[in-house]
Amino acid sequence: GECDAGWVQMNSSCYYPSREKKSFDRAQRACSYHAASLVTITSPEENSLVFNIARDFLVTPEDTPVWIGISTSQTLQWTDGTPIHYTNWIIGEPDANGACVQMILNGL
């Protein structure tokens, strides 16, 4: 299918690169409003795709981490219920601090 205006279609998925700075909870609510969810990254290819979309659409990518759909209550999990099989953590992460995850766009 086609994606709505402002969304980027890659393969069978639609991605919305928002330039608005929001908390994790507000970003999640904004996605829900559009019957969507924060991005679930399931492969190295999708990781690169999301990275490139974010880098190309954000005004200052080096200063703007991107929320992705991982959160924790007891364990890390994708917010849409997808099991976590693919990860691309920087050294030292995940740690015991924080309850949600961002993609860092600088230094890659």
From TrEMBL:
**A Pfam family:** Lectin_C
User: Gene3D superfamilies from the xrefs?
Assistant: Mannose-Binding Protein A, subunit A
Where the record annotates domain C-type lectin, the positions are: 10-108
Please identify the protein, giving its name as recorded.
C-type lectin domain-containing protein
Q: Which organism is it from?
A: Nematostella vectensis (Starlet sea anemone)
